[in-house]
């Protein structure tokens, strides 16, 4: 890992945030108060955004490799998203965080944001793992700080051990990759070949080592699958979400998913084209299992965080449709793709709606008492029209109803699958992808049932005995409203965001093409 | 004209936003505003219809050229050339996302477009007193629904159509769920989920069409424009296996929406629980979106599959006609009875459509409008009765004609329209449909299917008879015989029940005018439907005609699906598979 001054300059926003987080941790020991530290945190996010903006807009950034990081539309876009979600969660916490622990909570949150940013830009196994751990470790702290009762303790322990296990699996997979390629750089250049190039040339030389690639693939999919809460690693999610606060649950539903998406794209689509044949089959099966389990189990949930946990599992399944399409196209050498692009776009619209949902729930509760039962929301349409409207918008968006952002997410995923099938309609893969799309839409219909139930409770039921307190503070409400506006805006005018996701995928492919061209003469030289 | 069309479609949306802003001003202001918005929208729609070209202007060498010019004028009415259309989702250089706010009217959607605008006025007027809870939300939802309906019938972009199609679910979901009767929560969810499950499959079907064309077309342009897709599909038809799959996918959504027997189970529940305005719009407009979808997408884009599925759908249609009529006979709830009668009437629409001859198709398009008028009116009348007596049970009523002669008069008129009395609109539509069905049975069917088609045609005539029976039976029980009124125990109606007031008469009068207009001079309507309908079914019709010409098919009589590939269009095996590219890449990798 060579770190140059150039690299440090690219990492300026991350550095800024790390410094700010350290400042908040240290300062918190002397000065208490959540307003102060929320303001400091928000200001840091604004500075980080400025630093990101100075580096250029994600829409027209040129793909460059710099030491262990890659600057391309995908990493830039995800870093923007990470900082933005940090801001949203900070806003939501502004009136809710425990007064004595505010600085610790906000500092940990900021580290998680940095973790997502590092993962998004990592082009190197060690940095990638570092990014993922930088998400996990502060999460343990946050889970403990959120609430202190037995359920919370259980949730934290569960998450802690399973997360360690998944990191171990991932690391084991990495060790295979390193053993195969002899380098930790993921996508290299002709001069400095990375794992991708080494594996391709190993395959061209018919090296028997290439047969180990599927093994690495399975371990990596398992490790990242935990972050995504994909079946069969989804068991922890409902218990952990239920046992913690609404904001922590929202963080768990968003941060690891963004990181896992980046990880899947870098490690499975970019690094291991050789194992693509296995990758699409594995991800297709996991996608079907995950979304079906998530949606079906969510139907019977009475606890709103449990319900949303299953819903987030299901959305992880939808994301894997994109992975299946992306790797399927690599496997078959097809021109049709859009797999990675649809994953990126989907994770964006999912993150917007999910953050909004949990911010609204946080607003509706109070520091002492969280909103938990679905029935607690009854009559909200009359008593809290703004919060109810925002929640309804998020639910419709998660259900994928036009004209909201979620519709375009589903549009991107399903059109990826259908396009793949239409382009290769005579191949045996086509039937699998059509089946995947059909199962996907049926799942979307099932999912609508529980989202509608929440809307129905809010609007069609008379107010219950135990009304909500709605003492989460104006910050949480503002966070929810910002997300709602963005969900509507991204639903009405999605082209720029869809364009960004497609550019991100082209950015990945540009690297790939450049490498393939430079490698072509090599076998002849020998 | 295009600017006017866009303004017409967007007007209710703007109106809804205004309503939510002025919500604190109270019910009187809100409902007047809603009425003004719907009236303005209707006037714009009426102007669009008045300008619709019914005759080709200028000199022509032959009648064929004249027809060609007329068809051209009608199918491109109020639309813009592709390069001038608004890329509403936004446009990014280098990114292929050509989704346009592409609106236009042709003969298929014209009348439903107008009827949507008209029935909204009726809906506002019938909700005038009935809606007391959160009026701004209610009328806002009503206007959003109008926005969706107008959009569906004028969209020329496949994604835009789908967005409007699904968007209509949201306002109606809230209307049923908030202002419906006792079982409203269940009804609203069932309505939404049932329709959504179907329409998501439809979405996949539409995507399959789009990407099939995208993969085949030489320019590599991703187009979502409906006319372009139809044109390109003639060039690069889908292979039959794909056509059947896509047809079934589209069928899932459209047949549930129609609703085609046996997928109708959501309908009676939704109708009974919905508030009056919801029922009027659901029956009058939303159900037609299903028939319209078949006509707009399935038939012109998938002609082989449509022809192959023809006998099945005809049987389902006639099954719906008979079943709906028989179940209607057995109902004890007026609203339920009319809901089931919709199943029967929509069966007629599908029957005419899938007869695939000009008579049947034109009759079907006309019958869509007729059913909207008569059933919309009937639901409005039931709502008026319910407002007075708070019961929908047939057994609670009797001899009301003496108590409320005006209401009884309207009821009789709408009943006669519904059962197809000559001189009223229902007759024109049903007669054409039956003619179409018989024509198909006697002159256009292969011998193997002729028996079936004759049975279908004959059974559908029984449907007409049954229709007269259950409707007249209803009218007799409720309006004639000894006077029997349910006890009115609400304080605000002090025992004295009034006949229709001016507002209620005004809500119904425009429908009655249309009823007579269509009944007495259907030509005004049909000549605006005919060219577009002919274009839509051209492929299937020629295929059926040529396919059953024994000489043309080398003496072999098509017996099933396999034969349709031979007729006129390129068979799938002639297509150049893009797969070669994939094979090349794969080969070079090895």
Write the layout of secondary structure elements.
The complex is a heterodimer of chains A (526) and B (590).
Chain A: H1 5-10, H2 12-28, H3 34-54, E1 64-66, E2 69-71, H4 73-93, H5 102-121, H6 125-146, H7 150-181, H8 195-204, H9 213-228, H10 236-242, H11 246-271, H12 276-298, H13 304-332, H14 339-364, H15 380-383, H16 385-399, H17 405-423, H18 428-460, H19 473-492, H20 495-519, H21 522-525
Antiparallel strand pairs in A: 1-2
Helix pairs in contact in A: 2-3, 2-5, 3-4, 3-5, 4-5, 4-11, 4-14, 4-19, 4-20, 5-6, 5-11, 6-7, 6-11, 7-8, 7-9, 7-10, 9-11, 9-12, 10-13, 11-13, 11-14, 12-13, 12-18, 13-14, 13-17, 13-18, 14-16, 14-17, 14-19, 14-20, 16-18, 16-19, 17-18, 17-19
Chain B: H1 2-21, H2 27-50, H3 63-75, H4 110-126, H5 135-154, H6 158-167, H7 169-179, H8 184-216, H9 226-235, H10 240-257, H11 266-273, H12 276-301, H13 303-329, H14 334-353, H15 358-389, H16 400-403, H17 405-419, H18 425-443, H19 447-479, H20 502-520, H21 523-547, H22 579-589
Helix pairs in contact in B: 1-2, 1-5, 2-4, 2-5, 3-21, 4-5, 4-12, 4-15, 4-20, 5-6, 5-7, 5-12, 6-8, 7-8, 8-10, 8-11, 10-12, 10-13, 11-14, 12-14, 12-15, 12-21, 13-14, 13-19, 13-21, 14-15, 14-18, 14-19, 15-17, 15-18, 15-20, 15-21, 17-19, 18-19, 18-20
Short note summarizing the structure:
Chain A is mainly alpha-helical and 526 residues long. Helices cover 75% and strands 1% of the residues of chain A.
Q: Approximately how much beta-strand content do the residues of chain B carry? A: under 5%
Average pLDDT of chain A: 88
What is the helix tally of chain B? 22
Structural class of chain B: mainly alpha
Describe the structure.
The complex is a heterodimer of chains A (526) and B (590). Chain A has helices spanning 5-10, 12-28, 34-54, 73-93, 102-121, 125-146, 150-181, 195-204, 213-228, 236-242, 246-271, 276-298, 304-332, 339-364, 380-383, 385-399, 405-423, 428-460, 473-492, 495-519, 522-525, and strands at 64-66, 69-71. Chain A has 526 residues and is mostly helical. In chain A, strands 1-2 form a two-stranded antiparallel sheet. Chain A is globular. Residues 515-526 of chain A have low confidence and may be disordered. Chain B is mainly α and 590 residues long. Chain B is built from 22 helices and no strands. In chain B, helix 4 runs parallel beside helix 15 (358-389), helix 11 (266-273) crosses helix 14 and helix 18 runs parallel beside helix 20. The longest helix of chain B has 33 residues, at 184-216. The model of chain B is unreliable at 548-590 (pLDDT under 50). Classes of the chains: A mainly alpha (526), B mainly alpha (590).
């Amino acid at each position: 890992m060579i770190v140059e001054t150039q690299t440090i300059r690219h990492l300026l926003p991350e550095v800024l945030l790390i410094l700010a987080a350290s400042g908040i941790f240290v300062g918190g020991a002397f000065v208490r108060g959540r307003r102060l530290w929320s303001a400091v945190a928000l200001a840091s996010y604004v500075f980080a955004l400025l630093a990101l903006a100075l580096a250029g807009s994600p829409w027209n950034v040129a793909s460059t490799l710099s030491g262990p990081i890659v600057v391309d539309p995908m990493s830039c876009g995800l870093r923007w998203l990470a900082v933005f979600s940090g801001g949203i969660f900070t806003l939501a916490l502004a009136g809710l965080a425990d007064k004595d622990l505010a600085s610790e909570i906000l500092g940990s949150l900021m580290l998680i944001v940095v973790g997502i940013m590092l993962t998004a830009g990592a082009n190197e196994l060690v940095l990638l793992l570092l990014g993922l751990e930088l998400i996990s470790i502060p999460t343990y702290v946050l889970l403990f700080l959120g609430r202190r009762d037995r359920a919370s303790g259980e949730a934290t322990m569960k998450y802690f051990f399973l997360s360690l296990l998944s990191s171990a699996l991932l690391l084991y997979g990495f060790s295979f990759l390193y053993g195969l390629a002899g380098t930790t750089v993921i996508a290299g250049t002709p001069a400095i070949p990375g794992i991708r190039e080494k594996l391709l040339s190993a395959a061209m030389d018919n090296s028997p080592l290439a047969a180990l690639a599927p093994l690495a693939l399975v371990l990596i999919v398992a490790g990242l699958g935990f972050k995504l809460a994909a079946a069969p690693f989804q068991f922890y999610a409902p218990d952990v979400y239920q046992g913690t606060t609404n904001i922590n649950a929202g963080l768990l539903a968003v941060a690891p998913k963004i990181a896992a998406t980046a990880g899947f794209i870098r490690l499975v689509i970019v690094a291991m084209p050789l194992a693509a044949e296995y990758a699409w089959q594995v991800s297709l099966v996991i996608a079907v299992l995950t979304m079906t389990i998530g949606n079906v189990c969510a139907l019977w949930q009475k606890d709103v965080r449990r319900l949303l946990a299953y819903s987030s599992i299901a959305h992880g399944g939808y994301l894997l449709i994109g992975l299946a399409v992306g790797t399927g196209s690599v496997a078959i050498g097809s021109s049709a793709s859009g797999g990675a692009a649809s994953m990126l776009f989907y994770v964006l619209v999912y993150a917007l709606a999910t953050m909004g949902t949990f911010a609204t729930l946080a607003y509706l509760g109070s520091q002492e008492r969280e909103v938990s039962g679905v029935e607690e929301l009854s009559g909200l349409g009359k008593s809290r029209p703004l919060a109810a409207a925002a929640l309804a918008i998020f639910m419709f968006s998660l259900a994928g109803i036009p004209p909201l952002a979620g519709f375009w997410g589903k549009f991107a995923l399903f059109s990826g699958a259908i396009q793949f099938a239409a382009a290769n309609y005579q191949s045996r893969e086509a039937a699998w992808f059509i089946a995947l799309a059909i199962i996907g839409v049926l799942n979307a219909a099932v999912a609508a049932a529980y989202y509608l139930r929440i809307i129905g409770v809010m609007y069609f039921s008379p107010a219950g005995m135990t009304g909500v307190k709605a003492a989460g503070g104006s910050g949480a409400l503002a966070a929810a409203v910002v997300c709602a506006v963005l969900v509507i805006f991204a639903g009405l005018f999605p082209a720029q965001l869809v364009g960004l996701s497609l550019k991100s995928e082209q950015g990945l492919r540009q690297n790939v093409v450049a490498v393939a061209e430079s490698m072509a003469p090599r076998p002849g030289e020998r | 004209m295009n600017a006017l069309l866009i303004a017409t479609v967007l007007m209710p949306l703007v109106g809804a936003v205004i309503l939510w802003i002025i919500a604190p001003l109270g019910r009187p202001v809100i409902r007047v505003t809603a009425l003004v918005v719907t009236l303005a929208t209707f006037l714009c729609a009426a102007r669009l219809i008045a300008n619709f070209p019914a005759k080709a202007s200028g000199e022509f060498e032959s009648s064929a050229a004249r027809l060609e010019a007329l068809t051209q004028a009608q199918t491109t009415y109020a639309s813009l050339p592709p390069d001038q259309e608004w890329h509403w989702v936004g446009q990014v250089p280098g990114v292929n996302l050509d989704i346009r706010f592409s609106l236009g009217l042709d003969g298929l959607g014209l009348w439903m477009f107008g009827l949507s605008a008209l029935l909204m006025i009726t809906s506002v007027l019938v909700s005038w007193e009935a809606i007391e809870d959160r009026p701004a939300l209610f009328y806002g939802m009503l206007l959003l629904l109008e926005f969706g309906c107008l959009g569906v019938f004028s969209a020329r972009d496949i994604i835009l159509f789908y967005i409007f199609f699904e968007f209509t679910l949201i306002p109606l979901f809230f209307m049923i769920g908030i202002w419906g009767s006792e079982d409203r929560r269940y009804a609203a969810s069932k309505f939404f989920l049932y329709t959504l499950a179907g329409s998501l499959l439809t979405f996949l079907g539409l995507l399959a069409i789009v990407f099939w064309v995208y993969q085949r077309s030489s320019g590599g342009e991703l187009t979502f424009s409906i006319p372009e897709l139809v044109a390109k599909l003639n060039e690069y038809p889908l292979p039959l296996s794909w056509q059947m799959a896509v047809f079934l996918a589209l069928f899932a959504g459209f047949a549930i929406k129609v609703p085609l027997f046996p997928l109708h189970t959501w309908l009676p529940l939704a109708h009974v629980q919905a508030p009056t305005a919801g029922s009027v719009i659901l029956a009058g407009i939303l159900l037609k979106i299903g028939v319209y979808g078949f006509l707009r997408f399935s038939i012109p884009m998938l002609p082989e599959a449509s022809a192959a599925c023809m006998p099945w759908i005809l049987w389902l249609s006639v099954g719906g006609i008979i079943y709906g009529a028989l179940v209607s006979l057995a109902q004890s709830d007026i609203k339920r009875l009319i809901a089931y009668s919709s199943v029967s009437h929509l069966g007629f629409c599908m029957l005419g459509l899938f007869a695939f001859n000009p008579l049947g198709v034109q009759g079907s398009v006309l019958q869509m409008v007729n059913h909207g008028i008569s059933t919309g009116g009937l639901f409005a009348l039931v709502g008026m009765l319910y407002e007075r007596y708070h019961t929908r049970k047939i057994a609670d009523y009797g001899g009301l004609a003496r108590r409320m002669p005006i209401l009884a008069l309207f009821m009789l008129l709408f009943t006669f329209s519904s059962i197809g009395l000559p001189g009223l609109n229902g007759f024109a539509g049903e007669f054409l449909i039956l003619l179409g069905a018989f024509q198909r049975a006697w002159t256009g069917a292969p011998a193997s299917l002729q028996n079936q088609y004759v049975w279908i045609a004959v059974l559908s005539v029984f449907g007409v008879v049954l229709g007269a029976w259950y409707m007249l039976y209803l009218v007799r029980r409720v309006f004639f015989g000894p006077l029997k009124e349910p006890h009115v125990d609400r304080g605000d109606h002090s025992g004295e029940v009034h006949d229709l007031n001016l507002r209620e008469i005004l809500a119904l009068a425009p429908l009655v005018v249309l009823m007579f207009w269509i009944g007495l001079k259907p030509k005004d309507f049909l000549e605006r439907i005919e060219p577009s309908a002919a274009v839509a079914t051209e492929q299937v019709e020629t295929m059926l005609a040529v396919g059953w010409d024994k000489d043309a098919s080398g003496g072999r009589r098509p017996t099933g699906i396999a034969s349709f590939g031979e007729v006129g269009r390129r068979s799938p095996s002639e297509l150049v598979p893009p797969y070669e590219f994939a094979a090349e890449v794969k080969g070079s990798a090895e």
